[in-house]
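Late entry, written up from scratch paper. The run itself happened at the end of the previous shift, but nothing got recorded in the book at the time, so transcribing now.
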Amino acid sequence: MKEWDGTYIAKPVVDRGISEWTTMAEELERGLPRLAAAVEACLATQPWGPGAEGDSFRESHFRDNGPGDMLARCSRLPREVTDAGDRLRMAIDNTLQTDADIRHDLTTGQTREV
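Output as recorded:
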């Protein structure tokens, strides 16, 4: 028996899962800008304070763009999450269509050389 013999894609289950994925991505897209703005507002207050200790903390905190990198990634994340769901749906649909085409060819006696 081959590893994939007897397996199938339950389209309703996949659709339900991708719908939940999309809902989560939309919530992420709505929530992350607010959270990023809150982080930026907190950073703008410069809570590390003056003096040598504050300078040391600020230098350490902002090394390698610290929170700036995190904020930039957060702005891209929702689109990447949404795109992953869209790509998965397309891959599943393509797989099911290929399976249907192969099944049709086998039932009508058509063969293809590859």
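The helical segments are 11-44, 51-61, 66-107.
(Scratch paper discarded after transcription.)
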